[in-house]
Amino acid sequence: MIRGGRSYVTSAPSFSNDAKKLLVCTGNTVSVFSAATGLQITSLEGHTAQVTTLIVVPASSAAQKILCYCWTASLDGTIRHWDFSGPELLQTINAQVPIYSMVIPSLLSEPQQTDKRYDSSKLVAYVSVEDTSLVREGSTELRGHIRRFNLAKERLPRGDTLKETEEPKSIVISPSGEFFGIRHKCKIHVWDVPSGGSVSKKMTLHHTKVINAFAFHPTERIIAAGDVTGRVLIWRGFGNRKLALGSQKKNARAMVDLDNPGVRDEDDAESCTTWHWHSAEVNVLNFSSDGAYLYSGGREGVLVVWQLDTGKKKFLPRIGSPLLYFIWSPEPTLSSVVCADNQIHLLKMPSMEILRTISGIKPPPSLPKMYEGLSSTVAFDRSSGIAALCTENYCVQLYNLLNDRGISEVQVCERNHQPGDEITVVVTAVALSLDGSVMSTTEVKLPEDGIGGLVSLKFWESEPDSKTFTLSTIVYEPHKDAGISAIAFHPTRSMAVSTSFGGDFKIWVSNSDKSQTDKDSSWICHAVGSYKKKPMTAAAFSGDGTVLAVAAENVITLWNPDKNILLSVLGATLTPITKLCFAGKSEFLVAASHFPKPELSVWNTSKLSSSWSYGLRIEAITSALDSSTFAVLALVPKIFRKSKSKKNVFRGRDGAILLFNGSDPKPVSIWTVMKAEGGSISFLEGDKSQLRLAYVNGSHEYVVFDPNSDETHERSAADYEGLVGEEETGDFGYTSMYGELPDYDKKRKEDAESLVTPFVSSERPWETIFSGSTLNFPPLQKLCGEFFESLMEKSNSVVE
């Protein structure tokens, strides 16, 4: 089983002492990457919930740079001490409450020993925790607590509470380890780190706007803060009165009556300066190691460098995503910036050149409500295990699911990142050919005030042995003014079909077969089809490509894609069809409908009749190429999830993957999953000896597993009795309108026995006309003629 797609940006990363490794919080684990290559080296596994804090034990001398120790804290309520060179877990401390943030001041203020068994009894941690007892009781009391813990014990007592807030807050510590603080609405609360058994003293700085981030100067009493309006505030000389010691207090009293420019509400600071360049909230603030420069960043995706004395600035623009963290390494020429699109950029300082990028799966785009549930934003290359995912900023990211690595990106529509921009273009669908060499995308430019609007269909082709796609063909308004509902590729040829809500579908072919060079290839329209002017909502090719199934609202039409001939029509479903997929060797056709009544139906293509159906809302369908196995991703009804008898089965999960075999309506296996809405599934068949199933959830996290392995069979289908309801076996098509046909064979047999004149039974080609693996149906005129001719008996003359 392979898990991936975790977020790299939930917490700040940290460099190793030699700056050769970068440690990143990734869900329940800590991933260790090489700073030279950007590849993952190892991981620290042991926490059972999200890791929220990562602290690398700093080296006090050059000889100690080989030390590879770190502390982690997690929502599972434990604090762990690691040797990440192994990796090896050295110590586990149970805090008994979820930890959202942690700092250990003595690691910064006192040199560490080289022996990994150094005395931890003197280590004191300040943690931001959540009082779970208040959460369980539904109390409105303050559940966020700042507490002081002594790490000498394996099971920590409650500890001293320094501050209570509505929710847990992130703790920021000064580089010298002398001060730490939190931001709370429009205030910054700062404590000093006491020596010996003294008590921490506290002071507060006030502002008129909500504060988003703040940082301490490495050597001086200076705090920088950024607010939601984009302003950067610099408080100088903070804590000279309230946090001063000994002789410092006497000097501070003499300064009380002095005018402190920019300081509000008698705050304990000498002055406050305001800078304003950012147009939106400031998320990132950090001083340089010498304190001469301040780095800030926010939603604009621009890193700004301020000269602290003069206020002059320079920029690293067009990073392409809002900034979340800026981290220095022990090596002054290396730093990292963390972006909201799940990317970590390693920067060469001071030029701020991006050396390399550690790429996770980018989050899904924000879609207007009218496109929710109708877009197909994930496609799979079955042979290589690569997924194409639509992301923010009109991009399609190519991601290797087997290696958990980003490969490349395709900018579907050119756009520079700007904060607060309204959505003007929506990438509604992405599709990959079976061999992964061709990609197709559809985009919609939304009209402004009812004016304008444009639908575009694009074909992209990749270089041999590469997943770098280049634009081959762009078609504007391929279906007049109507939107594109689906795209599907032919399994063996350079052919694709696009369906339209306007009532037609178009078959596209590449002229690369006729051209001598690939550079001259382009895609042209081969044929156009429609059925009673109904909206065409889904499409799929059969396994050998000889039949094209197109959903005309609530009926399924079967076509010959080469000759564009209508072969047959399957009976109507209850609601409009949104997804189609051939199963087995095209013996079955699986259809899914959403609203107003969701339905999953399986049709027998040889008998042109329904085999079975269930009342389930289906998010995705996939089928194996060389077997009759197919799988669906279903949303579990809320009523069923909340049932007392099923709570232990679903454990709060909202979806299920059901594995079926051919026409058998009983699922072979069922796996419950989280974040199923907007998810997708696909079989991966690059390794012929092993069939794998990939699931990508609505947040672009994924898992790849063997569906036939006993280890991945979470539960048998019997445990989910009632999930799919009772099988619907009602009449469909002709039978639902006119009733059952008479039994002609029985009637003819009775008539033959009652007559003296012998009859010779005629051939009935209509009984076997649909047999065969190619499903090459004859024209409707020939089919009807042979059908009625077979009903007319032919008699032989009797010679006396």
TrEMBL record:
<keyword id="KW-0539">Nucleus</keyword>
<dbReference type="InterPro" id="IPR001680">
    <property type="entry name" value="WD40_rpt"/>
</dbReference>
<feature type="repeat" description="WD">
    <location>
        <begin position="275"/>
        <end position="316"/>
    </location>
</feature>
<protein>
    <recommendedName>
        <fullName>WD repeat-containing protein 75 second beta-propeller domain-containing protein</fullName>
    </recommendedName>
</protein>
<dbReference type="InterPro" id="IPR057644">
    <property type="entry name" value="Beta-prop_WDR75_2nd"/>
</dbReference>
<dbReference type="InterPro" id="IPR036322">
    <property type="entry name" value="WD40_repeat_dom_sf"/>
</dbReference>
<keyword id="KW-0677">Repeat</keyword>
<dbReference type="Pfam" id="PF00400">
    <property type="entry name" value="WD40"/>
</dbReference>
<feature type="domain" description="WD repeat-containing protein 75 second beta-propeller">
    <location>
        <begin position="396"/>
        <end position="636"/>
    </location>
</feature>
<dbReference type="Pfam" id="PF23869">
    <property type="entry name" value="Beta-prop_WDR75_1st"/>
</dbReference>
<keyword id="KW-0698">rRNA processing</keyword>
<keyword id="KW-0690">Ribosome biogenesis</keyword>
<feature type="repeat" description="WD">
    <location>
        <begin position="204"/>
        <end position="235"/>
    </location>
</feature>
<dbReference type="Pfam" id="PF23769">
    <property type="entry name" value="Beta-prop_WDR75_2nd"/>
</dbReference>
<keyword id="KW-0853">WD repeat</keyword>
<dbReference type="InterPro" id="IPR015943">
    <property type="entry name" value="WD40/YVTN_repeat-like_dom_sf"/>
</dbReference>
